[in-house]
Write a structure and sequence with these properties.
The protein is α/β, with parallel strands linked by helices. The protein has a single domain, classed as NADP-dependent oxidoreductase domain (TIM Barrel, Alpha-Beta Barrel). Helices cover 40% and strands 15% of the residues. The protein contains ten helices and ten strands. An eight-stranded parallel sheet has the order 3-4-5-6-7-8-9-10. Strands 1-2 form a two-stranded antiparallel ribbon. The N and C termini lie far apart (45 Å).
Length: 279
């Protein structure tokens, strides 16, 4: 089994470049799915308060027998907790549900620029959370360039990561480039566009040539571009397939060709207008 590559974040914390994503994994299936991923070799689990499955992640970690320091765990602040005191309470609730004392990475899930709580206030609470030791690193998710620029201009800490939608049909180059310029790592959610790219003829041609699936080729493209990815599946064979990314490489021309498939096509909400808050 090839070793998963890692990225060092801007505060020195090391994160595996490949993780297991739990978005849309039902709570009742989460423990078994995460346990399968850990058995396959994943050492990076991505969850969120909004997903409602943190408890299952914690149960899997405990049952796996792995040392806490051997598994990188990310969670995200729910949209209803953007005020400072709510954010400080939310991290404690996540830690309790996960059954751990410290997260490796805690993110603001969405900037929610249209609601009455300024995300800069929320980010200042995240800085407090990191300083308290309750998360080794803090970052953001779905932040656009203007959102990131405000954090840099108005606070003392750059996010460690920005988790955004990225895939061959939405390469999101402007946000990725701004992150690279400011040492903010890019995490790519929906890395295969919720399956929309899997029948793409260009990807299929490359996959046939290298003897891999289109999903593996797409995930390998992310890895070679420097993205952190965490594909999701509850099927053991697919979990194994998504992990087998480090014993082959795409050519530089392949990487450029795949990037040229961009259509600016989102599979999820627009961060500039998304304002969903759970009631």
């Amino acid at each position: 089994m090839s070793e998963v590559s890692t990225i060092t974040l801007n505060n020195g914390v090391t994160i595996p470049q490949l993780g297991y994503g739990t978005y849309q994994v039902p709570p009742e299936q989460t423990k078994d799915a995460v346990l399968a991923a850990l058995e396959v070799g994943y050492r990076h689990i991505d969850t969120a308060e909004m997903y409602g499955n943190e408890r299952g992640v914690g149960e899997a970690l405990k049952e796996s027998g792995l040392a806490r320091e051997d598994v990188f765990i990310t969670s995200k602040l729910n949209n209803g907790y953007h005020r400072r005191d709510d954010a400080l309470r939310a991290i404690d609730e996540s830690l309790a549900d996960l059954g751990i004392d410290q997260l490796d990475l805690f993110l603001i899930h969405w900037p929610l620029p249209t609601i009455d709580v300024d995300y800069v206030e929320t980010w200042k609470a995240m800085i407090e959370i990191q300083e308290s030791g309750k998360s080794r690193a803090v970052g953001v998710s779905n932040f656009q360039v203007p959102h990131l620029q405000r954090l840099l201009d108005e606070t003392s800490l750059a996010p460690a990561v920005n988790q955004i939608e990225v895939h061959p049909y939405l390469t999101n180059e402007e946000v990725r480039a701004f992150g690279a310029q400011h040492n903010i790592a890019t995490e790519a959610w929906s890395p295969i566009a919720q399956g929309a790219v899997l029948d793409d003829p260009t990807l299929k041609e490359i996959a046939e040539r290298v003897g891999r699936t289109t999903a593996q080729v797409t995930l390998r493209w992310h890895i070679q571009r420097g993205d952190i990815v965490f594909p999701k599946s509850v099927t053991r064979s697919r979990i194994e397939e998504n992990f087998a990314l480090f014993d082959f490489e795409l050519t530089d021309e392949d990487v450029k060709t795949i990037a040229s498939l961009n259509k600016d096509q989102r599979t999820g909400p627009d961060p500039d207008t998304f304002d969903y808050v759970p009631r």
